[in-house]
Protein: UDP-glucose 4-epimerase
Amino acid sequence: MKLLVTGGAGYVGSVCAARLLEAGHQVVVLDDLSTGHADAVPEGCRLVTGDVAERAGEVLAEGFDGVLHFAAKSLVAESMRDPARYWHGNVLTSVRLLDAMREHGVTRIVFSSTAAVYGQPESVPITEEAPTRPTNPYGATKLAIDHAITSYATAYGLAATSLRYFNVAGAHDGLGERHTVETHLIPIVLEAARGLREQVHIAGDDWPTPDGTCVRDYIHVRDLAEAHVLALEKSLPGNHRIYNLGNGTGFSVRQVIDACRDVTGRRIPAEVAERRLGDPATLVASSERAQQELGWYPQRREIEEIVRDAWEFVRDDRG
Ligand SMILES: NC(=O)c1ccc[n+]([C@@H]2O[C@H](COP(=O)([O-])OP(=O)(O)OC[C@H]3O[C@@H](n4cnc5c(N)ncnc54)[C@H](O)[C@@H]3O)[C@@H](O)[C@H]2O)c1
Structure:
Protein backbone atom coordinates (compact mmCIF):
# COMPACT_ATOMS: atom_id res chain seq x y z
CA MET A 1 0.00 0.00 0.00
CA LYS A 2 1.06 3.62 -0.45
CA LEU A 3 0.80 5.20 3.00
CA LEU A 4 1.03 8.68 4.45
CA VAL A 5 2.58 8.79 7.93
CA THR A 6 1.92 12.12 9.64
CA GLY A 7 4.42 12.80 12.42
CA GLY A 8 6.83 10.22 10.99
CA ALA A 9 9.84 12.26 12.12
CA GLY A 10 8.78 11.79 15.74
CA TYR A 11 9.46 8.94 18.14
CA VAL A 12 6.58 6.52 17.55
CA GLY A 13 5.93 7.61 13.95
CA SER A 14 9.52 6.97 12.84
CA VAL A 15 9.59 3.45 14.29
CA CYS A 16 6.21 2.68 12.69
CA ALA A 17 7.38 4.08 9.35
CA ALA A 18 10.41 1.76 9.52
CA ARG A 19 8.16 -1.22 10.31
CA LEU A 20 5.78 -0.35 7.44
CA LEU A 21 8.71 -0.24 5.00
CA GLU A 22 9.84 -3.64 6.29
CA ALA A 23 6.30 -4.95 5.67
CA GLY A 24 6.65 -3.88 2.03
CA HIS A 25 4.63 -0.66 2.03
CA GLN A 26 5.58 2.60 0.32
CA VAL A 27 5.79 5.43 2.89
CA VAL A 28 5.61 9.22 2.63
CA VAL A 29 6.14 11.20 5.87
CA LEU A 30 4.45 14.55 6.45
CA ASP A 31 5.97 16.33 9.45
CA ASP A 32 6.51 19.97 10.38
CA LEU A 33 9.54 19.01 12.53
CA SER A 34 8.05 20.96 15.47
CA THR A 35 9.09 18.17 17.86
CA GLY A 36 10.49 15.65 15.38
CA HIS A 37 13.85 15.27 13.64
CA ALA A 38 14.44 14.99 9.88
CA ASP A 39 17.21 12.42 10.49
CA ALA A 40 14.71 10.14 12.29
CA VAL A 41 12.78 9.59 9.06
CA PRO A 42 13.84 6.10 7.95
CA GLU A 43 15.79 5.74 4.75
CA GLY A 44 13.39 4.74 2.01
CA CYS A 45 10.63 7.17 3.12
CA ARG A 46 10.08 10.48 1.37
CA LEU A 47 9.83 13.41 3.81
CA VAL A 48 7.49 16.30 3.07
CA THR A 49 8.16 19.06 5.59
CA GLY A 50 5.01 20.93 6.54
CA ASP A 51 1.96 21.26 8.74
CA VAL A 52 -0.68 18.54 8.30
CA ALA A 53 -3.41 21.18 8.52
CA GLU A 54 -1.94 23.06 5.57
CA ARG A 55 -0.40 20.39 3.37
CA ALA A 56 -2.36 17.14 3.81
CA GLY A 57 -4.66 17.93 0.86
CA GLU A 58 -1.87 18.66 -1.58
CA VAL A 59 0.07 15.53 -0.53
CA LEU A 60 -2.96 13.19 -0.54
CA ALA A 61 -3.88 14.42 -4.03
CA GLU A 62 -1.01 12.19 -5.28
CA GLY A 63 -3.15 9.16 -4.41
CA PHE A 64 -2.76 7.07 -1.23
CA ASP A 65 -4.24 3.89 0.20
CA GLY A 66 -4.12 4.95 3.83
CA VAL A 67 -2.94 7.32 6.54
CA LEU A 68 -1.26 6.65 9.88
CA HIS A 69 -1.82 9.77 11.94
CA PHE A 70 0.79 10.36 14.65
CA ALA A 71 1.26 14.13 14.32
CA ALA A 72 0.10 15.84 17.51
CA LYS A 73 0.99 18.00 20.45
CA SER A 74 1.28 15.67 23.42
CA LEU A 75 2.47 17.43 26.57
CA VAL A 76 -0.13 17.26 29.34
CA ALA A 77 1.15 20.27 31.34
CA GLU A 78 1.44 22.43 28.22
CA SER A 79 -2.13 21.47 27.26
CA MET A 80 -3.33 22.81 30.63
CA ARG A 81 -1.41 26.09 30.24
CA ASP A 82 -2.27 26.61 26.58
CA PRO A 83 -5.32 24.54 25.55
CA ALA A 84 -5.85 26.53 22.33
CA ARG A 85 -2.62 25.07 20.98
CA TYR A 86 -4.10 21.60 21.51
CA TRP A 87 -7.60 22.24 20.14
CA HIS A 88 -6.06 23.80 17.04
CA GLY A 89 -2.97 21.59 16.71
CA ASN A 90 -4.76 18.31 17.43
CA VAL A 91 -8.48 18.60 16.70
CA LEU A 92 -8.65 21.15 13.86
CA THR A 93 -5.60 19.61 12.20
CA SER A 94 -7.13 16.13 12.37
CA VAL A 95 -10.47 17.28 10.96
CA ARG A 96 -8.62 18.93 8.07
CA LEU A 97 -6.79 15.66 7.51
CA LEU A 98 -10.06 13.68 7.53
CA ASP A 99 -11.57 16.13 5.03
CA ALA A 100 -8.53 15.86 2.76
CA MET A 101 -8.83 12.07 2.93
CA ARG A 102 -12.49 12.30 1.87
CA GLU A 103 -11.71 14.70 -0.91
CA HIS A 104 -9.02 12.46 -2.37
CA GLY A 105 -10.69 9.10 -1.78
CA VAL A 106 -8.28 7.83 0.91
CA THR A 107 -10.28 5.33 2.92
CA ARG A 108 -8.07 3.92 5.71
CA ILE A 109 -6.77 5.58 8.83
CA VAL A 110 -4.94 4.41 11.94
CA PHE A 111 -4.93 7.07 14.65
CA SER A 112 -2.63 7.45 17.68
CA SER A 113 -5.03 7.88 20.56
CA THR A 114 -4.03 7.62 24.19
CA ALA A 115 -4.79 6.17 27.60
CA ALA A 116 -5.26 9.81 28.68
CA VAL A 117 -8.82 9.64 27.28
CA TYR A 118 -9.80 7.51 30.30
CA GLY A 119 -8.60 9.88 33.05
CA GLN A 120 -8.85 8.38 36.54
CA PRO A 121 -9.87 4.74 36.00
CA GLU A 122 -12.56 3.16 38.18
CA SER A 123 -10.88 -0.22 37.84
CA VAL A 124 -7.76 -1.77 36.29
CA PRO A 125 -6.86 -3.27 33.89
CA ILE A 126 -8.57 -0.65 31.74
CA THR A 127 -10.77 -2.00 28.94
CA GLU A 128 -12.16 -0.09 25.97
CA GLU A 129 -15.55 -0.02 27.78
CA ALA A 130 -14.16 2.10 30.62
CA PRO A 131 -15.75 5.56 30.87
CA THR A 132 -13.82 8.24 28.97
CA ARG A 133 -13.30 11.15 31.34
CA PRO A 134 -10.04 12.89 30.38
CA THR A 135 -8.58 15.07 33.12
CA ASN A 136 -6.61 17.39 30.84
CA PRO A 137 -7.02 19.12 27.45
CA TYR A 138 -4.50 16.77 25.80
CA GLY A 139 -6.70 13.74 26.58
CA ALA A 140 -9.86 15.69 25.72
CA THR A 141 -8.54 16.63 22.27
CA LYS A 142 -7.57 13.02 21.51
CA LEU A 143 -11.06 11.88 22.58
CA ALA A 144 -12.66 14.56 20.38
CA ILE A 145 -10.65 13.22 17.41
CA ASP A 146 -11.80 9.68 18.22
CA HIS A 147 -15.42 10.93 18.09
CA ALA A 148 -14.81 12.72 14.78
CA ILE A 149 -13.32 9.55 13.31
CA THR A 150 -16.30 7.46 14.48
CA SER A 151 -18.76 9.75 12.72
CA TYR A 152 -16.66 9.98 9.54
CA ALA A 153 -16.36 6.18 9.46
CA THR A 154 -20.12 5.72 9.89
CA ALA A 155 -21.19 8.40 7.42
CA TYR A 156 -18.45 8.24 4.81
CA GLY A 157 -17.34 4.61 4.95
CA LEU A 158 -13.87 5.22 6.36
CA ALA A 159 -12.01 2.10 7.56
CA ALA A 160 -10.64 3.43 10.84
CA THR A 161 -8.76 2.24 13.90
CA SER A 162 -7.79 4.20 16.99
CA LEU A 163 -5.00 2.74 19.07
CA ARG A 164 -5.01 3.99 22.64
CA TYR A 165 -1.40 3.69 23.75
CA PHE A 166 -0.30 3.52 27.35
CA ASN A 167 3.37 4.45 28.09
CA VAL A 168 5.49 3.90 25.00
CA ALA A 169 9.15 3.11 25.68
CA GLY A 170 12.24 1.43 24.26
CA ALA A 171 13.89 1.96 20.88
CA HIS A 172 14.25 0.13 17.61
CA ASP A 173 17.03 0.08 15.05
CA GLY A 174 18.57 3.45 15.93
CA LEU A 175 15.20 5.16 16.44
CA GLY A 176 14.19 6.23 19.92
CA GLU A 177 12.92 9.02 22.15
CA ARG A 178 14.46 12.45 21.54
CA HIS A 179 11.87 14.82 22.99
CA THR A 180 13.23 18.29 23.74
CA VAL A 181 10.82 18.51 26.67
CA GLU A 182 11.03 15.03 28.16
CA THR A 183 8.19 13.98 30.45
CA HIS A 184 8.50 10.19 30.15
CA LEU A 185 9.97 8.27 33.06
CA ILE A 186 12.47 5.94 31.35
CA PRO A 187 14.33 8.63 29.33
CA ILE A 188 14.32 10.86 32.42
CA VAL A 189 15.90 8.14 34.56
CA LEU A 190 18.43 7.44 31.81
CA GLU A 191 19.31 11.15 31.73
CA ALA A 192 20.18 10.82 35.41
CA ALA A 193 22.27 7.73 34.56
CA ARG A 194 24.19 9.82 32.01
CA GLY A 195 24.77 12.63 34.53
CA LEU A 196 22.46 15.03 32.64
CA ARG A 197 20.18 15.30 35.68
CA GLU A 198 21.22 15.36 39.31
CA GLN A 199 18.51 12.97 40.42
CA VAL A 200 15.12 11.50 39.71
CA HIS A 201 12.09 12.76 41.61
CA ILE A 202 9.62 10.07 42.63
CA ALA A 203 6.18 11.67 42.86
CA GLY A 204 5.02 10.12 46.13
CA ASP A 205 5.73 6.76 47.76
CA ASP A 206 2.50 6.45 49.71
CA TRP A 207 0.20 5.30 46.91
CA PRO A 208 -1.94 2.17 47.36
CA THR A 209 0.49 0.04 45.30
CA PRO A 210 2.84 -2.79 46.36
CA ASP A 211 5.88 -0.51 46.89
CA GLY A 212 3.99 2.76 47.34
CA THR A 213 5.06 4.30 44.00
CA CYS A 214 2.81 4.73 40.95
CA VAL A 215 2.39 1.78 38.60
CA ARG A 216 2.32 2.26 34.81
CA ASP A 217 2.08 0.04 31.77
CA TYR A 218 5.13 0.30 29.45
CA ILE A 219 4.72 -0.89 25.88
CA HIS A 220 7.79 -1.44 23.71
CA VAL A 221 7.70 0.84 20.66
CA ARG A 222 8.49 -2.08 18.34
CA ASP A 223 5.46 -4.02 19.63
CA LEU A 224 3.39 -0.89 19.12
CA ALA A 225 4.59 -0.62 15.51
CA GLU A 226 3.48 -4.20 14.92
CA ALA A 227 -0.02 -3.31 16.15
CA HIS A 228 -0.22 -0.53 13.54
CA VAL A 229 0.59 -2.90 10.70
CA LEU A 230 -2.09 -5.34 11.91
CA ALA A 231 -4.64 -2.56 12.44
CA LEU A 232 -4.08 -1.24 8.95
CA GLU A 233 -4.46 -4.66 7.36
CA LYS A 234 -7.58 -5.61 9.35
CA SER A 235 -9.53 -2.36 9.10
CA LEU A 236 -13.02 -2.54 7.59
CA PRO A 237 -14.92 0.17 5.65
CA GLY A 238 -17.59 1.90 7.72
CA ASN A 239 -16.06 0.71 10.99
CA HIS A 240 -14.13 2.57 13.64
CA ARG A 241 -12.40 0.11 15.93
CA ILE A 242 -10.73 1.13 19.15
CA TYR A 243 -8.02 -0.85 20.94
CA ASN A 244 -6.07 -0.29 24.13
CA LEU A 245 -2.43 -1.19 23.73
CA GLY A 246 -0.28 -2.00 26.70
CA ASN A 247 1.94 -4.66 28.08
CA GLY A 248 -0.72 -5.99 30.44
CA THR A 249 1.81 -5.78 33.26
CA GLY A 250 2.42 -2.71 35.30
CA PHE A 251 5.80 -1.63 36.66
CA SER A 252 6.20 0.76 39.56
CA VAL A 253 8.41 3.85 39.42
CA ARG A 254 10.84 2.11 41.80
CA GLN A 255 10.93 -1.01 39.60
CA VAL A 256 11.73 1.16 36.57
CA ILE A 257 14.53 2.98 38.42
CA ASP A 258 15.95 -0.34 39.65
CA ALA A 259 15.83 -1.77 36.12
CA CYS A 260 17.69 1.32 34.85
CA ARG A 261 20.34 0.85 37.58
CA ASP A 262 20.77 -2.83 36.65
CA VAL A 263 20.93 -2.23 32.91
CA THR A 264 23.26 0.80 33.00
CA GLY A 265 25.37 -0.31 35.96
CA ARG A 266 25.31 3.33 37.05
CA ARG A 267 24.36 5.00 40.28
CA ILE A 268 21.07 6.81 39.77
CA PRO A 269 20.16 9.08 42.69
CA ALA A 270 16.42 9.24 43.39
CA GLU A 271 14.46 11.30 45.89
CA VAL A 272 10.85 11.05 46.99
CA ALA A 273 8.91 14.25 46.27
CA GLU A 274 5.29 15.35 46.63
CA ARG A 275 2.52 13.46 44.85
CA ARG A 276 1.44 15.11 41.57
CA LEU A 277 -2.15 16.28 41.67
CA GLY A 278 -4.45 14.11 39.56
CA ASP A 279 -1.98 11.21 39.15
CA PRO A 280 -3.79 7.86 39.22
CA ALA A 281 -2.04 5.25 41.42
CA THR A 282 -2.16 2.52 38.78
CA LEU A 283 -2.70 2.63 35.02
CA VAL A 284 -2.59 -0.74 33.33
CA ALA A 285 -4.24 -1.63 30.00
CA SER A 286 -6.31 -4.61 29.11
CA SER A 287 -5.20 -5.42 25.56
CA GLU A 288 -7.46 -8.45 25.31
CA ARG A 289 -9.51 -6.99 22.48
CA ALA A 290 -6.38 -6.27 20.41
CA GLN A 291 -5.20 -9.81 21.07
CA GLN A 292 -8.49 -11.36 20.01
CA GLU A 293 -9.34 -9.16 17.03
CA LEU A 294 -5.93 -8.15 15.68
CA GLY A 295 -3.96 -11.20 16.80
CA TRP A 296 -1.50 -8.81 18.47
CA TYR A 297 0.69 -10.02 21.32
CA PRO A 298 3.43 -7.86 22.83
CA GLN A 299 6.76 -9.71 22.51
CA ARG A 300 9.05 -7.44 24.55
CA ARG A 301 7.35 -7.39 27.92
CA GLU A 302 10.19 -7.37 30.43
CA ILE A 303 11.08 -3.96 31.80
CA GLU A 304 14.81 -4.81 31.58
CA GLU A 305 14.52 -5.43 27.82
CA ILE A 306 12.58 -2.21 27.27
CA VAL A 307 15.14 -0.23 29.30
CA ARG A 308 18.10 -1.97 27.60
CA ASP A 309 16.88 -0.88 24.15
CA ALA A 310 16.25 2.68 25.34
CA TRP A 311 19.72 2.74 26.96
CA GLU A 312 21.46 1.50 23.81
CA PHE A 313 19.80 4.33 21.92
CA VAL A 314 20.80 7.17 24.31
CA ARG A 315 24.17 5.79 25.47
CA ASP A 316 25.89 6.97 22.31
CA ASP A 317 24.66 10.47 23.13
CA ARG A 318 22.07 10.61 20.40
CA GLY A 319 19.59 12.12 22.85
N1 LIG B 1 4.98 8.49 23.42
C1 LIG B 1 3.98 8.04 24.15
O1 LIG B 1 4.18 7.45 25.25
C2 LIG B 1 2.55 8.20 23.67
C3 LIG B 1 1.50 7.68 24.46
C4 LIG B 1 0.19 7.80 24.01
C5 LIG B 1 -0.08 8.42 22.79
N2 LIG B 1 0.95 8.95 22.06
C6 LIG B 1 0.63 9.62 20.79
O2 LIG B 1 1.49 9.11 19.78
C7 LIG B 1 1.79 10.11 18.83
C8 LIG B 1 3.30 10.21 18.66
O3 LIG B 1 3.90 10.52 19.90
P1 LIG B 1 5.46 10.70 20.02
O4 LIG B 1 5.84 10.39 21.42
O5 LIG B 1 6.13 10.00 18.91
O6 LIG B 1 5.59 12.28 19.83
P2 LIG B 1 6.64 13.12 18.97
O7 LIG B 1 6.49 14.53 19.43
O8 LIG B 1 7.99 12.50 19.01
O9 LIG B 1 6.07 12.98 17.49
C9 LIG B 1 5.06 13.80 16.95
C10 LIG B 1 5.51 14.23 15.57
O10 LIG B 1 4.46 14.98 14.94
C11 LIG B 1 5.01 16.16 14.36
N3 LIG B 1 3.91 17.14 14.32
C12 LIG B 1 3.21 17.65 15.38
N4 LIG B 1 2.23 18.47 14.93
C13 LIG B 1 2.30 18.47 13.57
C14 LIG B 1 1.55 19.08 12.53
N5 LIG B 1 0.50 19.89 12.80
N6 LIG B 1 1.90 18.86 11.24
C15 LIG B 1 2.97 18.04 10.95
N7 LIG B 1 3.70 17.42 11.89
C16 LIG B 1 3.37 17.62 13.18
C17 LIG B 1 6.19 16.53 15.23
O11 LIG B 1 7.16 17.31 14.57
C18 LIG B 1 6.74 15.14 15.59
O12 LIG B 1 7.67 14.69 14.63
C19 LIG B 1 1.13 11.39 19.33
O13 LIG B 1 -0.07 11.56 18.63
C20 LIG B 1 0.89 11.11 20.81
O14 LIG B 1 -0.24 11.82 21.27
C21 LIG B 1 2.25 8.85 22.46
